[in-house]
Predict the structure.
Amino acid sequence: MWELDCMLGEAISNCDVFVDAGSGIGTSSAYHARRYRRLRVVGIELAAERSQAARELFEAAGMRNRVEFVVGSFVNEGVWNNHVFHRGDERVCVWLNAENYVKEDGLMLSFEQLAERLIVQPGSLIVSTEKLFRGKTRRAPQDGCPITLRELDLSWKLPGYNLDIFIYTRMADEMRGG
């Protein structure tokens, strides 16, 4: 987490909402809630018992009001509309530890499609442990505003462990015009 922070700290702090997609008991949510106090933090977890455990841990740590834990799927558009997007123009940073989900049929494709529709504000980030979007350039669906999805691939080689991180950034593409 620290290495990513060194590289992405400014980009994350320019976002409005941090979303921990598949939050489990809230480890990543806790880190980002403490590190970026201005961000609204939302943890989305399918398993009700893990989400409840996260709420209890945050309550015990005196951080109950810092993070909203939602029981639901991170590919459910209603979850995003009801808990992430309050104004509709938020810049979002999504943390997706995707190695747990890649074997679930169609789940990552569903997330990609959802992200293309909803995470459209320039400055938004998606940080994933798996490659998404197949490096394609996409256009935002609203107002015909061209949006480029840029990918950065990082690798950490630690003794007995390799970690690949893919970072996708929404940037207004002024070079192509409308």
Remarks:
- The first helix runs from residue 2 to 13.
- Residues 16 and 90 are 6 Å apart (CA to CA).
- The two ends are 37 Å apart (CA to CA).
